[in-house]
């Protein structure tokens, strides 16, 4: 049932504040300022290395998580798309943790990667949305997302719930490694607990995003740029746009622009720049200015301070609430989802059932 929404995708984008809150309830003990896992007896302290494997949007959630595991827990992370992981003879030392991430829990390549890792003696953690799925059954540690059924083929609420779970896992791993003080943990609880309200605030920009979707709907190619955890967001934005609007889109690390893709820039290629204010902001803005100097039309997605500092000369700006960097990937997922959604609606494509795509990919 779509309720009063036109598409399942739109409904699912709007459910994010609630389902992220629902997911966080299973991982945050707010009275005690603790981040816990629903597998209380498991000891993560001996984990020396993490391997993260997934496909598509779930892979981009894993890419964000790599930054967090390395930053908080100082544990090295290998990251692969599942279809490549299986065939590159990856090195997995005993004592490693394999994390598979999947909405459906049935994606063939991810499941095969899980089984391969098991045969190599890895402990398997599965971040899955369907609790009865094959991956949920085969994992040692089940870390459910509580997004509820996702019907739209383009994944939205599953992604933000995956990020919530992965942030909780990163905090738990950091604590097990002796790298999380009670004060750090308290701060993480506080920031994660702010995510639902921040997602709500981000949704308030829906109409503004709809109003500028026309500027993107006419394009043949679109670029998305970001740095740090906004780089996976750029990739996710491009994936969302191409799968539902059929516009060719690419995500790039902002610093990689000048190593090739800048040759594509002209006034016909909108460039979506994802850049919350913070330590990486100035660097990304200088990449953005390289685009503008070549006649490129920039859509800047930032917070009030970022838009004030760098919004001039942009084709459009989208102002997000100012949030802590830990929850920025969840919050900035909203405008990239909404932009793809409104562009697809403007183009009249089948938003919930895009051509050539299936919700669950159970073949290799
Ligand atoms: C993109 C999308 C796909 C899935 C991918 C993995 O919007 O929906 O890229 O993310 O097929 O699916 P799961 O998460 O079920 O393993």
In short:
By secondary structure, the protein is an alpha/beta fold. It contains 14 helices and twelve strands.
Number of strands: 12
Helicity range? 40-55%
Q: How does the overall form come out from the CA principal axes?
A: globular
Strand order of the largest sheet: 4-3-5-6-7
Which stretches are low in confidence, meaning pLDDT under 50 for 5 or more residues running?
Answer: none
**What is the mean pLDDT?**
95
Largest sheet: 5 strands, parallel
* Percent of residues in beta strands: 15-25%
Number of contiguous helices:
14
- What bound compounds does this protein have? fructose -6-phosphate
Name its key features.
five-stranded parallel β-sheet; alpha/beta; 45% helix; 364 residues; binds fructose -6-phosphate
């Amino acid at each position: 049932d779509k309720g009063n929404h036109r598409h399942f995708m739109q409904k699912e984008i709007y459910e994010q504040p609630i389902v992220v809150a629902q997911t966080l309830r299973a991982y945050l003990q707010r009275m005690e300022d603790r981040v816990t896992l629903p597998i209380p007896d498991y000891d993560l302290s001996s984990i020396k290395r993490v391997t993260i494997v997934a496909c598509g949007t779930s892979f981009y959630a894993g890419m964000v998580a790599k930054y967090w595991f390395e930053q908080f827990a100082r544990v090295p992370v290998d990251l692969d798309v599942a279809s490549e992981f299986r065939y590159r003879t990856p090195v997995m030392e005993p004592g490693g943790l394999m994390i598979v991430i999947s909405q459906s829990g049935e994606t063939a390549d991810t499941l095969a990667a899980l089984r391969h890792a098991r045969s190599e003696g890895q402990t398997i953690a599965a971040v899955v949305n369907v609790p009865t799925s094959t991956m949920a059954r085969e994992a040692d540690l089940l870390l459910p997302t509580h997004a509820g059924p996702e019907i739209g083929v383009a994944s939205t609420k599953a992604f933000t719930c995956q990020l919530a779970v992965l942030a909780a896992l990163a905090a738990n791993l950091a604590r097990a490694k002796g790298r999380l003080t009670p004060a750090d943990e308290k701060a993480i609880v506080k920031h994660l607990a702010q995510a639902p309200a921040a997602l709500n605030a981000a949704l308030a920009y829906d109409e503004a995003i709809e109003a500028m979707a026309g500027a993107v709907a006419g394009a043949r190619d679109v670029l998305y740029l970001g740095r740090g955890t906004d780089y996976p967001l750029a990739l996710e934005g491009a994936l969302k746009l191409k799968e539902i609007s059929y516009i060719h889109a690419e995500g790039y690390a902002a610093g990689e622009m000048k190593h090739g893709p800048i040759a594509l820039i002209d006034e016909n290629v909108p460039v979506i720049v994802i850049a919350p204010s913070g330590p990486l902001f100035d660097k990304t803005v200088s990449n953005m200015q390289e685009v503008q100097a070549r006649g490129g039309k920039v859509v800047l997605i930032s917070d009030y301070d970022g838009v004030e500092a760098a919004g001039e000369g942009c084709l459009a700006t989208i102002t997000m609430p100012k949030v802590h960097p830990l929850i920025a990937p969840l919050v900035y997922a909203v405008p990239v989802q909404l932009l793809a959604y409104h562009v697809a609606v403007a183009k009249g494509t089948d938003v919930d059932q895009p051509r050539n795509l299936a919700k669950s990919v159970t073949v290799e």
